[in-house]
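Quick question: what would this complex look like in 3D?
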Amino acid sequence: MATTEASSQGLQQVLCFALAGEAYALPIIKVREIQAQATLTRIPKAPPYMPGVINLRGAIVPILELRHRFSLGEAPEDTRPVIVIVEVQGRTLGIRVDSVSDVLDLDPAAIRPAPELGTQGALGREFIAGLANLPGSTGSDTMLILLDLDRLLSDGELMALDSAVS
Amino acid sequence: MGHSILTVDDSSTMRQMISFTLKGAGFDVIEAGDGVEALEVAKGKKLSLIITDVNMPRMDGITLVARLRALPEFKFTPILVLTTESDASMKQKGKEAGATGWIVKPFSPEKLLDVVNKVI
Amino acid sequence: MSDAMAQFRDAFFEEATELADGMEATLLSMDLAAVEVEDLHTLFRAAHSIKGNAATFGFPEVAAFTHKLESTLEPVRQGNRPMTSELREMLLQGVDLIRSHLHQARRGESLSPREQQAQAELITRLQADAGAPLPAPSTPAAPARDQAMKGGTGFSIRFEAPLDAFRRGVNLERLFRDLAKLGHLQTWTDLTRIPASNELDPEDCHLAWDVRLETSHPQADVDDIFEFVADGDNLRIQPLPPLGAVPNLGDILQVEAGVSPADIREALSQQKRLGELLVDMGKVKPEVVNKALDQQTKKRNQAEASTVRVATEKIDRLVNLVGELVITQAMLAQASQLSNTMQGEEQMSAALLQLDRQTRELQERVMGIRMVPVEMVFSRFPRMVHELGKQLGKDVELIMEGQATELDKTFIEMLVDPLTHLVRNAVDHGMETKEERQKSGKPSMGSIALRASSRGGHIHIEVKDDGKGLNRDRIYQKALDRGLLQPGSRPSDEELNLLIFEPGFSTVEQVSDLSGRGVGMDVVRQNVRSLGGRIEVESEPGRGTLIRLVLPLTMAILDGLTVRVGEEIYVFPLASVLESFQRQVADVQTVKGDREVISLRGEFIPVVRLLTLLGLGPNPDASERTLLVLVESEGRRAAMAVDELLGQQQVVIKSLETHYKRVEGVSGATILGDGRVALILDVPGLMRLEASTAAASV
């Protein structure tokens, strides 16, 4: 089902961020805070999209490299990535994105299910909660991709409890 | 209350003190000066309690207890002996003869009533 | 109030709040059409306890008010005043007022004027339709305090009347009446001592009683009542268990179901499960036993969940330390202003030295507060072993030692499952059947020993059975079948023993109903590892098996050796590090193609390249010298190649699993002084990782 969780409620607040030129958004209720860059400690044999952990005020929190997850390639040298700390299913996780832009109120009615497009690279439709059009400053609309965090993180390989070496 | 108590002591002062205290508490009190007299006085009476001194002329308290216990009418009557603190063995002797309990001298009127209330 | 009293104040508030909650729950669940007498007693006792404790701990207002509730409840529980819905409402209001009292008293204040008015109104209403109020005890404080200090709430009395009681004119009825005057009395007459009628002298007294007396009177008052009938050992008076202690099942049944202590003793002497036996004896219904068991569990859980008791000296020392820290802080502040001067630097380094000592001590002492006796886990085993033995038809005796050994509270929680499994396994698999034991000339009663001891920085917990021992031939075969061992390999006995902890490894084909349940042996190992401990196994065929859990003293802090590997920093638990040394690269020999070993004092030790093992990158071109850290775990050694030794330090262990997952070769993480996360290496895990990579590459 491609309905969003807020479709039956009022406006949905989302945090917008950029990733390889695309505009993405997360429901703000999942977001705990936004961190500037923190030193990453690499986890042995971890997949490249979840390479390590950071110290979040004493808690050891893993980092999800969204670029790698979506196979968008390395960020250009001049980006100063930020980490969006989210809480999903009781776990805290940092999502590294290129930049954070805005907090928006979205009318659930304006959210459409993702069309069947094969142009989204490795990003499967299953992680998209929906799409919304944003009136751009230059008059042209920007498409906002709403992520379904729960699906993204309940994805088997990402949170598998045992990564025992094969 | 209707309880009759026999108090046996060769010292009249002691008898009076006991008698006075018990009467004040509503008991009927009969007095005897020694064991022999006690046996005579007690004969044929219905007593609720007998309080006896140990050291008395003619018949001592311990003998009195044993003699009373041998009489059918006093077989189960509570008997207290008056002992002194220094003579702990007397408690045991009293018990062996059949005494219910003891009161250690010196005692206050309150203590006397306490003990009496314990056995009646 | 004395300081000693102040200490107990929190405990008082906690308990009083619980009691008030209990009163409320009882009142609400009460069926007014069919009031359970026991509920009334419960209410009364709760009010009584709050009153007594409040008086003891210096809250006369709380005591005075609860005394009013107690007086109201006294005729109710005696059946002289009906429990009506109005009364219930009033009592509920009373509970609210107790709470207000407690709330205010905690802040050192009295009831607000509004609350005081409510209280006055309630008291008037309570007394309006009550009979004569209970005579107020002149000062509840004095006897209650005396008794609260002793901890008891009364006495449990066993009294066997002297044989000549009748003949001496002893008034036994009077005696019990006097006892009843002291408090709440329950008696059970024990007629079992009366001989058969042909031997019976009717003038002899063969009666005996078990008495439970809830009273705030001192024992002297009880002794006094028995003055004329106490004779040697025919009278035993014991204080009841203190308030808040976990009562014995027998005690609960005694109070709640009126089961006589004599019956309980008889049941206990038969060494069977108490509740069942009482049911068998027809003394109590199964439901009642279940209810009592539930109640016991609840009490036990409460006891476990509640606060940790800490000795005053411990707190005092902490307070002093904090004082010292404040001084150090001032020194540092001053030194920083004098920076760039000789004096400033000296002062700075002195202060830092002091800070180092103080933080270390603070850490140790704070950790000390978390230590609880291992008894908390052990206590469940007598019952379990007994039941298992019964179920399996085996006679098993359980020996426990060292219950007072202290462990970190977290450990205790984490050890419950592994120990349960080990004990269960010992009874189920380790122990032979009676017949087998007799055949091999062993006593038919098997024994399981649970021992805890503290040895040089570690806690040892042993589960030892005198059963058949591990069948190493079978383990070997099984390990081959499962591919855990390479054909032709010659593992030591110790290595074979440890294989039983491999996932999915069980030497018993048919998993029995008992051991099949719950966690497996691999989970035992996993839990022990996650506590930073290790397992040792000793086993002798026909003689039995000893499984030893070796645990660090506390989990939260670890003595570590920090090393650099590539660009990453890792921490080795110091406990598994034997030494570190440098070797010429030429000393590292290669065997079987690519496995590297070095020779150390005549022993060949495998070299583990952490950089490659942890996937941090390819081996850099070998420099001239290699830095090696010699580690040992579960009887095996390895030399771990690292790039730099950074130093020894204590680190605080953080879990990786809270937000992430378990990582092979890593037991946890810590945060370094600069805020970076460093992973703590799991030495046995690394060895396994190395073994499996090596196997894969062959």
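Answer marked as accepted. The mean pLDDT of chain C is 79.
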